[in-house]
Give the backbone structure.
Amino acid sequence: MYDAIANAAEQLLWKPEIERPADFPKIKNIVVAGMGGSALAAYLIPAIWPEINIIAHRDYGLPFNTQGVFVIASSYSGNTEEVIDAFRTARKEKLPTAAIATGGELARLAEAEEVPLVRLPQTGIQPRAARGYSIQALLTLIGRDAESKELVTFAKKWDPRGTEEVGKRLASRVHGKVPIIYTSERNRAIGYNWKIVFNETAKIPAFANTIPEQNHNEINAFDNVLAGNSFAFVIVRDAEDHPRVARRMEVLEKILLSKGWPVEVVNLEGNSRVAVVQNALTLGDWAGYHTAMLMNHDPDAVPSVESFKKML
């Protein structure tokens, strides 16, 4: 896992190739069927470029009213049953369809159906660690060459190890507690990704919510809970957030501290939106990795997921 995080820039430099490329008409609405780490790109691309309309679908079949959409089935292993079911549903409904996978059943179906496929590199890393590959694959399939080149330009000068110390420090602060991560709505994908990393890499519970939504309901949840060793709140600030969101975060921090809860504030950094998001993602990766190290957990293994699949 350490090498996968440290070498994250190399993934953004990867140039995907489309097997059996097809000329689809201009389609503005994109549905990405994916689970776990294979769905992350569908959240992260709009977080950087909000004008790109992508919906992540994490279930069997497809969402209702899918006419006029481009369906992309994304499964790192190629064997995720929900994604395969979504692919088959898209083909049955005769929707424009493509696939992203390293191989497996999804790649076989794409070939049989003569559907475009981007085959991800088989590096042996976990799907959540293949984030850069998935983003470039998705951008390629939807014809976003300019955005893909923007990532390449950034990656040539980027060292993901630059956020390791901040991530390591965050790990020490949340060690032994359940992280509750708060971001602005525009950074929802970052908070969600941090949650996944704490769950899968560190093997601890973690939760994420957004501001201002938290202020209207979840803030009440801690009124009658004794502050102690149970939770650690992480407030993620972004200089580009709405001024009122920034103010809400300040007030929330004061309230939580007044009740005795530990609060860590993380300020996102970067000279572009691409830099802000990529730095934030690797910071979360490092926090999850070093939390796993503190707890003597294997950061790569996901034994509960594997056991669950066998029981199914």
In short: Residues 139 and 167 are 28 Å apart (CA to CA). The mean pLDDT is 94. Residues 160-294 form a domain with the Rossmann fold fold (CATH 3.40.50.10490). The chain has two domains: 2-155, 160-294.
